[in-house]
Amino acid sequence: MTAWVTVLLVTVVYLGLTLAVGLFSGRTMSSGTEGYVAGDRRMGFFVLYFVLGASIFSAFAFLGGPGWAYSRGAAAFYIISYTSLGLVPMYFFGPRVARLGRQFGYVTQAQLFMHRYHSRHISALLAVISLTAFVPYLTLQMQGAGYVFSIVTEGRMPMWAGAGITYGVVLLYVFRSGVMGVAWTNTFQGILMLGLAWGLGLYLPHALHGGIGPMFIRIADTAPNMLTAPGLNAAGDPWTWGGYSSAIAISVFGFSVWPHYFMKIYTAESIATLRKTIIFYPTFAFFVLPILFIGFSGVLAFPNVTPADTILPTIVTSLGLPAIVVGLFCAGALAASMSSGDAIVHAAGSVLIKDGYRVLVRSSVTDADETRMIRWAVVGIGGIAYYVAISSEISLVLLLLLSYGFIAQIFPALIAALCWRRSTPAGVIAGLVVGCLATIIWNLAPALQWQQIHPGIWGLAANTAVLIAVSFATRPMNPAHVDEFVTA
Amino acid sequence: MHSTGLRALAIVFAAIFVATMWPVYPLVRQVHPFVFGLPFPLVYVLGLTLLSFIVLLLFDRYVHQDDDP
Known about the structure:
Chain A is mostly helical. Chain A is built from 22 helices and no strands. Chain A has helices at residues 3-24, 33-38, 45-53, 59-72, 77-85, 88-104, 109-117, 120-152, 159-209, 212-222, 241-255, 259-262, 271-280, 284-301, 311-318, 323-360, 367-390, 397-408, 410-419, 425-444, 455-473, 479-486. In chain A, helix 5 runs antiparallel to helix 14 (284-301). In chain B, helix 1 runs antiparallel to helix 2 (40-63). Chain B starts with a helix and ends in a 6-residue tail after the last helix. The relative contact order of chain B is 0.16. Chain B is elongated, with a radius of gyration of 15 Å. Chain B is built from 2 helices and no strands. Chain B is mainly alpha-helical.
């Protein structure tokens, strides 16, 4: 049997196992939206830890993380910083959101805002922001999956076919099992990825340099700029502190309000479980560490690999490793893509129907019909993202840059909703719109750039200022209603 | 006590957050000294990660009081 067939077989077995886990895990959930979207609010610590953690290991982390370490050195340390701090804000607001979710039956992020501010417009606006951010991310995950299959088959299978097979599997188990399918496959995939990350992260520095310590000593002697904070920018020049610091800041502000993370607050079986999950979340940063070791191992051993994101597959396929190991690597890369993609497509379908269609088009829908619509919305959004993924004419770069900047704009609105009695619907809407517009403008106008600060930071500043000013300029809301949220 | 404790925790995490970036992180930007074979900027970031975990763990165990199940 030739090597590529063995690799393909391992990959297919992985996909088969994932599909089985995904389909099986939905057998006990209830048939309504609370079951499909919120898992009947009975997810335990172990699964919740992995469902949140595995999303970190997206195609960006598994392929992009080593690429960052390889090409930008210490700049990649920002990934560890935001992973360790990203979920901390949720320790403060998560229990309150969970309590409100149980009390009022929320399953999406926008439902909380719509109720707090009595505004359908906020719901629609959040749906637009969420979907605008989701689609490019989902598309990137699909492209990552197609790329893996292309490697597996040594170019025999085109990207469109690999992405189609992988996301066919994802859509099947998300369609059937909803959030429980996402949760249990993420647990399976998370364990696989952790094992592979640490296995490769320890093995590659040892095989190429004699160990992690000798590897870093060689890099420090040859290219000390690589290991001196804040590392390098994309052009290979020293990165600015403004760029490094704002990358962490925008990630920390945006992390916990990504709708597919936020919605998991509603799935926790208890508030104690939610808090415990958040407490242990920083430990996932230690699982990101070997991903960076992999990238650093290639700096001196495999110079001039372009694009940098291909450093991991380049190393794995160059070392003459047994085909089964290469197959496991490919399975891990697919797991990284799928564990983010499934959560995103599930959340996107839920947001489209619950926060968009139900609010703007038709509010009176039975629970069974609504669940059916969410299932088909999942398929529809998956199809759109797939089309974008295989269409080479659409550039994702700007949309990806905008995604985190857009999502972070929800953070001030959330703080205002839960902590500031005087905030008003007009203030929140104006803040969100101005924040997103400022993010777009700072992205499109290089002349406005200063110290490479992330455009989303300017958006946050404008958002917060406008939220406060417009709230003060408009009529306050009923204090009794507001107290339900501020004192929850 | 509950909200006071949370406020104190927020201040601690604001300090950790600032410690991950400018103007604090530049103070430890140099590669040396190596600790357990790792360059110092990486050790520093990992140390803050460990600190975040321990602070949250201890706060939840000894300070936080929540009646919710």
